[in-house]
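Handoff note, outgoing to incoming analyst
You'll be picking up this chain. Sequence as last confirmed:
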Amino acid sequence: MSNEYKKVEDKEKDQFNQLCVMEGTTFPEGGVEEFHQFFKDEFGVRVKFENQVKTLPDFEGCTETGGRNDLFFYILFFLLIKNLITKIKKNNTTYS
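Most recent structure output, in case you need it:
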C-alpha cells in the first residue's frame, strides 16, 4: 500500500466519527457488504460496521432479559447532515 493511499484511507476512517447502535437487529445474511449497501440504498449514507453483540441479562439467573442482538456501526456524520439538508430542501420543509 502506498503512503498516499494510506493517508486517504486514514482520513476517511477519521470521518466515520459517530457510533450508532441498532437494537434488536440480526446481522444480514449477505454480511458486511449487504449491511453497507442497505444504508447506502435506504438512507444515502455510508457506514462502517463495527461489531455485533448479545446483551446480558439484568442479573445473574434472570431468564427474562438478555440475549438481544445489537449491531454497532459508525456513520459518516458529515454525509448524514448533508443528506438531511438536501431532503429538507427537496421537500421544502420549514421548521420553527
